Predict the structure.
Amino acid sequence: MELELRHLRVLCAIADAGSVGRAAAQLGYSQPAVSTQLRRIERHLGEPLFERGTGGARPTRYGAEVVAQARDVLARADAIGHRPAPERPGRTLRVAATNSPMLSGTLSRVRTLPELSLAVHSVYASSRIVELLEDGAADIAIAADYPGMELRHSSALRHRGIVTEPTFVALPARHRLRQCAQIQLAELAQDAWFVTPDDGAGWPGVFYDACAAAGFTPDTVHEFLGDQSQLQSMIADGLGVSLVQPTLRPIPHVTVKPLVGSPLWCRYVLAWRPDAVTDDVVETVSQSAMAAYRDLVAQAPHLRAWASRTWSVAGS
């Protein structure tokens, strides 16, 4: 057989849905038809692409590579013949943003403003975001800071809080603490940790401080900066645990739990240059970000369950 675009769409649908049955329903096919198609593709490639079990289907390491390549091919195919949209009248709002799941929902709302077009710069470190604003290379940004460590910048900039959220932990679904509703940070003292690099705003120092307060120093730390799906795949394989945003939607074989006492918090911050952005635009972006966050909370049952007991979502 030769791989066709429809085959690639089947693979992506299974990866996104987390099961063959749900993928079949989304594609409008029967489950046996999708299962047969998947077996033919795997025979053609010579290796299993998904691990199937009672919890659904998740990509093997090879399968994750194939799915990533399939997404790239499909994106390129969808772009064939499409001309860039004509530039909209008005000005371009240059947005810098850290790794926040609320970004997509925020931008989709801001795009409704007829007088603005957007240019987005994805940046990991909040300190770098401040530099871009200070240098005039960005107009407005979503950054992060931590309680007691307010985002630092010159008087040329302004900032306001969007939302302050607790930090949760992602574990393999077979982890020894999987049945616990909440987990003591000290109970993870012997686990290997995936930790993202210095963000220039206080991370990972706040993580190590919390561990020290809990009476331990993490023994094995893997520095990780990459795709969330790749991180979750490694957690699912039992290679370690990681602190995560509470709105994270876990893949099969990963579970997300709150920490007892919420020892770690993160605040998302809107920062901007007042000489480059009007108050109306600031208010629109701020309200859009909060609405996007509320949407994420609605899709995160582990966060809703925790929030119903201890916290109500609000901007800070």
The chain has two domains: 5-79, 89-316. DSSP finds ten helices and twelve strands in the chain. The longest helix spans residues 279-298.
